[in-house]
Design a protein that fits this description.
The complex is a heterodimer of chains A (118) and B (87). Chain A is an all-alpha fold. In chain A, 72% of the residues lie in helices and 0% in strands. Chain A has one domain. The termini of chain B are far apart. Classes of the chains: A mainly alpha (118), B mainly alpha (87).
């Protein structure tokens, strides 16, 4: 692969990753409650970091470092989604209320006295 | 690696570090414990990506191993804390 093609692909993947990371930061700072904050957070965990890692792998070429970077990509794919699920589950079990309008109960539950909204 | 790609990747690393400092706000001021965990999780991921970029930029292969350990530690910490505070 020629150098120009490699550099162009690196810029494309790197800019995609930066875009997703900035989106994740904005979502983390601006979303109203935990459950909606988890969504941009996991997105920037997987897509952003994996595309930046792919850009790095293009630059490295065939090497021992390439194998380690592939291991990192596999690890990110395996671990990011379960950690997001665990955080959401712990919030649900602790009774964190989702964002909703005043006087509207987001979901009906048996014995839902512990759901104290506004 | 070409000169242009080197500088581009360094600029990406700088943007990521600025983003990580912005994410620390959520970790400091989150209303619930889970918000803090999400903030710390994202800061850890960004640190790992910056380590990967630094390893390519400086040509140090040791940083790749550190990033690998960082990713595993991030996963273990998140799962452990969220299962621990789950009643």
């Amino acid at each position: 692969m020629s150098n120009v093609v490699k550099d162009t692909l690196t810029v494309i993947f790197g800019l995609t990753g930066v875009l997703f990371f900035i989106g994740g930061t904005v979502g983390l700072l601006r979303c109203p409650d935990l459950y909606s904050r988890l969504h941009p957070a996991t997105k920037c965990d997987t897509v952003g970091s994996i595309s930046i890692t792919v850009a790095l792998a293009l630059q490295i070429g065939l090497d021992m470092a390439l194998f380690k970077i592939l291991v990192v990509i596999f690890l990110l794919l395996m671990t990011s989604a379960p950690s997001g699920h665990a955080i959401g589950r712990s919030a649900f079990m602790n009774g964190v209320m989702p964002w909703h309008k005043k006087g509207v109960v987001p979901w009906p539950l048996e014995g839902g006295d512990r759901w104290t909204g506004h | 690696m070409s000169d242009f790609a080197n500088e581009f990747l360094l600029a990406v690393a700088v943007v990521l570090i600025i983003n990580a400092f912005l994410c620390l706000y959520r970790a400091a001021a989150g209303p619930t414990i889970q918000d803090r965990i999400v903030g710390i999780n994202i800061v850890n991921t960004k640190t790992m990506v910056v380590l990967l970029i630094l390893s390519t930029f400086l040509g140090e292969e040791l940083y790749l191993d550190i990033a690998l350990a960082y990713a595993l530690l991030n996963f273990v910490v998140t799962i452990t804390i969220s299962r621990y505070i789950e009643t």
